[in-house]
Write a structure and sequence with these properties.
This protein has five helices and two strands; from the N terminus they run H-E-H-E-H-H-H. The protein is mainly alpha-helical and about 100 residues long. Helix 2 links the parallel strand 1 (about 15) and strand 2.
Amino acid sequence: MGADHLLPGMQADALIADKAFDADERVIQPLATAGKLAVIPPKANRQVSRNYDRELFKARHLIENFFARLKQFRAIATRYDKTKCNFLAAVQLAAAVIWLN
């Protein structure tokens, strides 16, 4: 799995993820070893419950809503612009429009 190699080397101090990433051996322990905070709510069937930062997890909802609104722009969702410079400019323009509304 790619997470085995990507998560311990990530530059962020915390990983905010959904319940699907609640796996001790594959996600939680490598992050703890690397000194990273795992903000992942425990699954309902988890035998040993663990705590997570609920307030920080709420920020994930805002980020997901932003990406959902960003995908409403057809040129962004279908990657209409083929060059990365033009695509980045389109994303920035769409983000500005979302922010102003």
